[in-house]
Amino acid sequence: MSASRRSGTTDELGPGEPERDGADLLAALLDGMDAALCAFDADGVVTHWNREAERILGWSAAEAVGRRGFAGWAVRTADAEEVEGRLMSAMHAPGRQVHEFALLTKDGGRVLVRTQSAAVRGADGKPAGLYCAFSEVHAQIDLERSIALSEALFEDASWGVVLVDADLRPAVVNAHAARDFGMTRTAVLGRPLGELLSQGVEELENALVHVLAEGAPPAPAELWVTVRTPEGERRRCWRSGFLRLASPLAEEPVPLGVGWLFQDVTEAKQTEQEAAQLRFRSNQLHRAGRAAAECEDPYEAATVHLDFALAGFADHALIDLVAGGAAVDGEGPVRLVRAAATPSGAPGPSVPAGRAAGIPVRYEEGHPALQCVERAGSVRAGAGASSPEAAREWALARQWSADSVHALCAVLRSRGRTLGVVTFLRGASRTQFERSDAVYAEDVAVRIASALDLAGVGARAASGPGRGQGAAAG
Q1: Does position 296 have pLDDT exceeding 80, yes or no?
Q2: pLDDT (0 to 100) of residue 247
Q3: 80-89, 257-266, 325-334: least confident range
Q4: pLDDT tens digits, residue range 106-155?
Q5: Residues 6+ apart with CB under 8 A from 134
Q6: Mean pLDDT across the stretch 173-178?
């Protein structure tokens, strides 16, 4: 317990209870401090000594209060004059004075401390003594490092740092995170995460709630989010780490929020995904070639290529062949006959679709498949940002499965002739076809066209009407 010298003037001032209450309050305040504190009167006599000072040096308040200076007990005699001179100089200096020197512990050890000293002035404004707060140097350095680290994280860090409060709203944001959000630092503060992100909010909030309840996860998590910015929405991948923040002043851990550190790894993840996708598609082409080589019927080999291509690429696919043989480049419009299609209701291998009957599909002018034949190149189409009913009407009007919203048509060409079109369809759960998808579809189309050419499709254009009709019906 803190101790102080008390004068015998209590009775002269009146009832002693208020004086004792004030002294007890002062003692409680001093003992509750995290820093060691001692005080000296104008003559250099110790008047106050708190529990933290006792913890660091081992001297109790009863042993310290009343001693003059530190000489002979808290400081080596050889150092006493210098130490006391530096301490007492604070009584006549403005502001606080900071010093470092070694103090002696009760068991004879030495502790390097950092002190802050300042004068205590009486009612007349003259120095009446001084107080000295001190702590072990390594503890002070640890504190300074923590403060410096916090300031560096929120100013110069090369990754995003966000402190999220218990209501899951950003409380502090560093400059890097603000740039990733496409906003200023102050504009982000206090806003719900749903106003900052259009997609990925649920995953992020779930991670934050988990950290508040259970603590930090053992490894970083990769979150895909869509950021709302003044320039539009951006799809990003953030590798995120989370830390639960608890108050160091509470007896029980009280969560103050979550420290969220993240780094944008979108480009690396996209490169990784593209490489994995390329490996998978190359493997599929290899497997399809091996399987097709075992087919006695070249037409069956063509459907084998179609089935292997569908895995992980599209939901539905179909083959349309040019009616009457092969199309001659530069001639008028062509008609297409449905030759094969994959089931639209449930997964399964592609099946023949009335090729022998030779009835053309009712494709309207400007249909993507007809454009593909006319251009002898790939054509992409989509329902756009329309309602489910409008997307359904869009697909049915083009003679496709009702759940299709994205389409990619690749021309079937062999030996300089156009034999037909292969069409890949995706539902609403998939993204639209990209240029890399068109390249893959063209590779598949080359293999399908070669098999169809071997089966005799397009023979009419090469050897006359009679042969072509027989080949188309066979």
Answers
A1: yes
A2: 73
A3: 325-334
A4: 888 888 888 888 888 888 888 888 989 888 887 777 777 877 777 877 77
A5: 35, 36, 37, 38, 53, 56, 103, 113, 114, 115, 116
A6: 91
Give the pLDDT of residue 42.
Answer: 87
State both tokens at 250: 């509470």
Could you give the percent of the chain with pLDDT greater than 90? Answer: 36
* Opening angle at CA 253, ends 251 and 259, nearest 5: 140
Average pLDDT over residues 204-224: 92
| 338: β partners | 320
At 231 the pLDDT is: 80
Distance CA 269, CA 222 (A): 10
- pTM over 0.85? The answer is no
The Cα 31–Cα 49 span in angstroms is 9
Residues with Cβ within 8 Å of 186's Cβ and at least 6 positions away in sequence, in order, are none
pLDDT tens track for 272-285 = 999 999 999 999 99
Determine the longest span between alpha carbons in the chain, in angstroms.
Answer: 135
Cα-Cα-Cα-Cα dihedral sign, residues 456, 462, 468, 470: negative
Q: Are 160 and 183 in contact (CB under 8 A)?
A: no
Instruction: Tell me how crowded residue 256 is: count the other CB atoms within 10 A of its CB.
Output: 18
Q: How far apart are CA 382 and CA 405, in angstroms?
A: 5
166-177 per-residue burial string, b: 16 or more CB within 10 A, e: under 16 = eebebbbbbebb
426: nearest Cα among 458, 404, 409? 404
Task: Give residue 207's identity as a one-letter amino acid code.
Answer: A
Tokens of 116: 């802050």
What region does 168 belong to: left with phi over 0, alpha with psi -120 to 50, or beta?
left
Distances (CA, A) of 274 to 107, 200, 269: 68, 22, 8
Query: Is the Cβ–Cβ distance between 166 and 143 less than 8 Å?
Result: no
- The angle at the Cα of 168, spanning 165 to 173, to the nearest 5 degrees, equals 60
Question: What's the rounded Cα separation, in Å, for the pair 363 and 327?
Answer: 16
